[in-house]
């Protein structure tokens, strides 16, 4: 019994929508129409007729209220959609801004790194002589190199001369040695001839 009553109430609430009583009014209107059709006297019929008009007026008012709520919900949905799009646009703009900020941070890091490298190079350059002093040193080194080149040429010329003199000396020694060997052979031949002549004289 209580379960069936609860079930009926639950179903009526589901059918009734937001609980404005439209389903009950329609039932009353149907009952009033049936009573009006079955009314015996004109006074009773007029009373039922007034009740039907009152119920219809309530139904029309409820319907108008429902339409107003529906229009308001539509406008709220449109407003929510607009807010949602605005939020999406704001999120997209925030992402773009974050991306741009990241690019600026990277650029700032590169600029800072370049400045640090420039400062390091400037310190290194400060420890070196200026361009004028460097040119003077280069000029002095060039002169020294030219002088050393002349000295090298002179040494090479002397070395070539000594090489030629040594070659002449070797040739002279060789010729002298050859002459001595020839003289020794000639002396040996003369001694041999004298020995042979002495031997022949003794015979």
UniProtKB/TrEMBL annotation:
<feature type="region of interest" description="Disordered">
    <location>
        <begin position="182"/>
        <end position="203"/>
    </location>
</feature>
<feature type="coiled-coil region">
    <location>
        <begin position="77"/>
        <end position="104"/>
    </location>
</feature>
<keyword id="KW-0175">Coiled coil</keyword>
<comment type="function">
    <text>Component of the THO subcomplex of the TREX complex which is thought to couple mRNA transcription, processing and nuclear export, and which specifically associates with spliced mRNA and not with unspliced pre-mRNA. Required for efficient export of polyadenylated RNA. Plays a key structural role in the oligomerization of the THO-DDX39B complex.</text>
</comment>
<comment type="similarity">
    <text>Belongs to the THOC7 family.</text>
</comment>
<dbReference type="InterPro" id="IPR008501">
    <property type="entry name" value="THOC7/Mft1"/>
</dbReference>
<keyword id="KW-0539">Nucleus</keyword>
<dbReference type="GO" id="GO:0006397">
    <property type="term" value="P:mRNA processing"/>
</dbReference>
<dbReference type="GO" id="GO:0000445">
    <property type="term" value="C:THO complex part of transcription export complex"/>
</dbReference>
<dbReference type="Pfam" id="PF05615">
    <property type="entry name" value="THOC7"/>
</dbReference>
<dbReference type="GO" id="GO:0006406">
    <property type="term" value="P:mRNA export from nucleus"/>
</dbReference>
<protein>
    <submittedName>
        <fullName>THOC7 protein</fullName>
    </submittedName>
</protein>
């Amino acid at each position: 019994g209580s379960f069936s009553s609860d079930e009926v109430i639950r179903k009526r609430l589901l059918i009734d929508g937001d609980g404005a009583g439209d389903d009950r009014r329609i039932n009353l209107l149907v009952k009033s129409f049936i009573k009006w059709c079955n009314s015996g006297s004109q006074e009773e019929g007029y009373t039922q007729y007034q009740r039907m008009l009152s119920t219809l007026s309530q139904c029309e008012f409820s319907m108008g209220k429902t339409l107003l709520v529906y229009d308001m919900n539509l406008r709220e949905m449109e407003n929510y959609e607009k807010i949602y799009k605005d939020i999406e646009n704001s999120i997209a703009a925030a992402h773009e801004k974050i991306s741009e900020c990241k690019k600026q941070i990277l650029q700032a890091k590169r600029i800072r790194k370049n400045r640090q490298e420039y400062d390091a190079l400037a310190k290194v350059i400060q420890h070196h002589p200026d361009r004028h002093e460097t040119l003077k040193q280069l000029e002095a080194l060039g002169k020294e190199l030219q002088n050393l080149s002349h000295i090298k040429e002179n040494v090479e010329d002397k070395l070539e001369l000594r090489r030629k003199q040594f070659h002449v000396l070797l040739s002279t020694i060789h010729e002298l040695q050859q002459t001595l060997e020839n003289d020794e052979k000639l002396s040996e031949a003369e001694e041999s001839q004298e020995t042979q002549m002495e031997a022949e004289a003794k015979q």
